[in-house]
UniProtKB/TrEMBL annotation:
Species of origin: Otolemur garnettii (Small-eared galago)
PANTHER family associated with the record: P25 ALPHA-RELATED, TUBULIN POLYMERIZATION-PROMOTING PROTEIN FAMILY MEMBER 2
Keyword field: Cytoplasm
Major location category of this protein: cytoplasm
Name the record gives this protein: EF-hand domain-containing protein
Pfam families linked to this entry: p25-alpha
Record's keyword annotation contains Cytoplasm: yes
């Protein structure tokens, strides 16, 4: 029977990697697991620490780590994250953080991008000169552009509208 931590490990291992059996996890998904489960806190444990530990526990030419190696990595990270605790206690605390967690599908960047776009397309926030172009303020095209007369006579020609009168 797989532990809760192992189940979480497997969910992250296969995330976005259809070729993964869930037995091994790549660096990208390992980092995501640490991020999404709150193991990385940006203070005691940073993304650099996560990369360093991953590269330390993996086999020299491997791109992934097994759950066994993952446990080693977590013991090491727990010593940074929970300095005052024993490696085993720290590991248990990390496993508690992982319990029942799934890979988050909306990334931080997507959320930011959506917010920025909303800001740009919200016309109630427009000010000053932009507003006249976007809101129908009655000026229309005549208020902001020089219009040309398309009468068929060249620029500055006299006698516009007299063509029909000639015999």
């Amino acid at each position: 029977m797989a532990s809760e931590a192992e189940k979480t490990f497997q969910r992250f291992a296969v995330f976005g990697d259809s070729s993964s059996s869930g037995a091994e996890i790549n660096n990208k998904n390992f980092s995501k697991l640490c991020q999404d489960c709150g193991i990385t806190d940006g203070k005691t444990v940073t993304s650099v620490d996560v990369d360093t530990v991953f590269n330390k526990v993996k086999a020299k030419d491997a791109g992934t780590i097994t759950f066994q190696q993952f446990t080693e990595a977590m013991k090491e990270l727990s010593q940074k994250r929970f300095k005052e605790k024993s490696p085993d206690q720290g590991l248990q605390d990390i496993y508690q953080l992982m319990e029942g967690k799934n890979p988050a599908t909306t990334s931080f960047y997507q959320a930011i991008r959506a917010g920025a776009l909303d800001q740009q397309t919200n016309t109630s926030k427009y000010t000053g000169s932009h507003e006249e172009h976007l809101v129908d303020s009655g000026k229309g095209i005549a208020g902001r552009e020089e219009t040309t007369e398309n009468s068929g006579y060249g620029k500055g020609q006299k006698g516009a509208g007299t063509y029909d009168k000639k015999n």
